[in-house]
Automatic annotation (TrEMBL):
One of its GO terms (biological process) is nucleotide catabolic process. InterPro entries: 5'-Nucleotdase_C, 5'-Nucleotdase_C_sf, 5'-Nucleotdase_CS, 5_nucleotidase/apyrase, Calcineurin-like_PHP, Metallo-depent_PP-like. This is 2', 3'-cyclic-nucleotide 2'-phosphodiesterase. Residues 5-239 form the Calcineurin-like phosphoesterase domain. SUPFAM superfamilies: 5'-nucleotidase (syn. UDP-sugar hydrolase), C-terminal domain, Metallo-dependent phosphatases. It comes from Fructilactobacillus florum 8D.
Length: 518
């Protein structure tokens, strides 16, 4: 008789398949889907007769690495490469993440075409679900026990994604979806598992809100307001979480396959869950399973592609030695990204971010590898019309990134916890401005000029930025899709490649338009 159910999950692999971060052709790093998949396969192989092991791929699988950029840029390549591997691993279900839509629906359909498990999406609606989301839930029956896996995707996707990449898809809040479906699923099955590509919007101990209440992350409200869930798989936030909330076990296994989430449910003779555990299993030391290893041909092609020369730069160093210093004073690498955006959408003001502290900037001699290691997102460059008042509001939001502690400049914890959001601090080119961090948040922009004249409240300005920021992403409500004037046809990484080819050698410049007092 079935006594235990183990629920294994990966989430936010972001196209990292092999144990490498692609920073150099021969670099090995303890991460990737092959390590996570090897661990899942081993646990499945070692399961006992009274134990059922299920595995769920919880989204953001097909975007985020140089390998996935190569697949998207080369239509003749095997775009279903990743789901051929997941099919070998033996997942029972997959979930759509928000980044699954970054390359459009046609690419998504190709990428998912070879999987042998259903892709679940109970809160997705529209005709364009065809070939993308197969069904709202999956029913598994084993030794007389009925188990249902309900699949949900963060409903905030339309707030980030270009409309052309979504077709007629609509995303319902997971709260209303779960409230509608869980009563019938509870009567239909003995065990109800929810797999959600989304995370938690409140502190899991105190219940205090950790972000604005939107449809991006609704996991806390789900477990505290809607009964009938036996286990919850989460993702999206890239956090490493395992525990219980309101008696329900949950996991969130970080990113890049570095952990596998494991929830274990113990059943009584009536098939009721009587106890549960939750933990994260590290994959770093897991040997690769030869049964799921793909041919190395595609990886060799990707490594060769990344090693292509793009020329060189002269002038200021574009290496990033200290991320905090780069954010405090500006940096030649960030100025370069802004120049690329301005050139692409014909503006003379631009904003960009240093996405995380692992970015190294550019060496003197450049390759494609340097582009994709520093700018991993397929963002578009966008020109947006804003008023002087809105620009000042955006700069005040940027200024809130900093705080002073014992006379030292530090990052505001709100940009680091519960998940890092370093990508939500922008540096601008084309304006001159100053922050005084000694002043209260909201009153820190003490100087702002454009073409050597003070920016007025009603003045109209066109600013280049990426499409995520242009629609208000990252808590920038002064920006909106309705204000977009034009956008690039190519992604920003590809624009960077073209710009370097057309400006050889590239003359790197240190910025002098921003100052910060503390």
């Amino acid at each position: 008789m079935l006594k235990k159910i183990k629920i294994l999950s990966t989430s936010d692999v972001h196209g990292f398949i092999y144990p490498t971060d692609y920073s150099s052709p021969d670099k090995t790093t303890p991460l990737g889907l092959l390590k996570a998949g090897s661990l899942i396969s081993r646990i499945k192989d070692q399961s006992q007769p009274d134990e059922l092991v299920l595995a769920v791929e919880n989204g953001d699988l097909i975007q985020g690495s140089p390998l996935t950029s190569y697949l998207a840029d080369h239509p003749q390549s095997d775009q279903s490469f990743l789901t051929k591997i997941t099919s070998k691993i033996g997942y029972q279900a997959g979930i759509l993440g928000n980044h699954e839509f970054n390359f459009g629906l046609e690419f998504l359909r190709h990428a998912e075409s070879q999987r042998n498990y259903p892709l679940l999406g109970a809160n997705l609606h529209g005709h364009d679900r065809t070939g993308i989301s197969d069904q709202p839930y999956q029913i598994i029956e084993e030794q007389g026990v009925k188990i249902v896996i309900l699949g949900l995707t963060t409903a905030f996707v339309p707030n980030w994604e270009a409309p052309k990449n979504l077709g007629d898809l609509q995303f319902e809040s997971i709260l209303s979806t779960a409230a509608r479906l869980l009563p019938s699923l509870r009567s239909l099955a003995d065990v109800v598992i929810v797999a959600y590509h989304g995370g938690f919007e409140a502190d899991l101990t105190t219940g205090q809100a950790t972000e604005p209440a939107t449809t991006e992350n609704e996991g806390y409200r789900l477990l505290t307001s809607i009964p009938g869930i036996d286990a919850l798989i989460t993702g999206h936030q890239h956090r490493k979480l395992a525990g219980h909330l309101n008696g329900v076990p949950y996991t969130q296994p970080g990113l890049h396959g570095t952990y596998v989430g494991e929830i274990e449910l113990t059943l009584d003779q009536a098939h009721h869950v009587v106890s549960s555990t939750s933990q994260l299993l590290p994959t770093a030391n897991e040997p690769l399973d030869p049964n799921i290893m793909p041919s190395s041909a595609l990886e060799d092609q990707v490594q060769g592609w990344l090693s292509q020369s793009l020329g060189e730069h002269v002038g200021a160093s574009m290496r990033i030695a200290d991320p905090l210093t780069a954010r405090q004073h500006g940096h030649p690498y960030l100025t370069f990204v802004n120049q690329v955006q301005m050139d692409a959408v014909d503006t003379d003001i631009a904003a960009t971010a240093l996405f995380n502290d692992e970015l190294n900037g550019f060496p003197t001699k450049l390759t494609l590898r340097d582009i994709f290691n520093n700018y991993p997102y397929p963002n578009l460059a966008v020109a947006e019309l804003v008023t002087g008042r809105e620009l000042r509001q955006a700069l005040e939001q940027c200024a809130s990134f900093f705080q002073i502690n014992c006379g030292q400049l530090q990052i505001n914890p709100k940009f680091c916890e519960p998940k890092p959001q370093l990508f939500n601090y922008d540096l601008y080119t084309g304006i001159n401005y100053e922050f005084d961090i000694r002043k209260p948040i909201g009153h820190r922009v003490t100087y702002l000029t454009y073409h050597e004249k003070a920016v007025t409240e009603e003045q109209q300005l066109i600013v280049a930025m990426n499409n995520y920021r242009a629609i208000g992403g990252g808590n920038y409500p002064m920006f909106a899709s309705s204000k977009i004037q034009r956008q690039s046809q190519k992604t920003i990484p590809n624009l960077m490649i073209d710009y370097l080819k057309n400006h050889q050698p590239y003359q790197a410049q240190s910025p002098h338009n921003f100052s910060l007092k503390f």
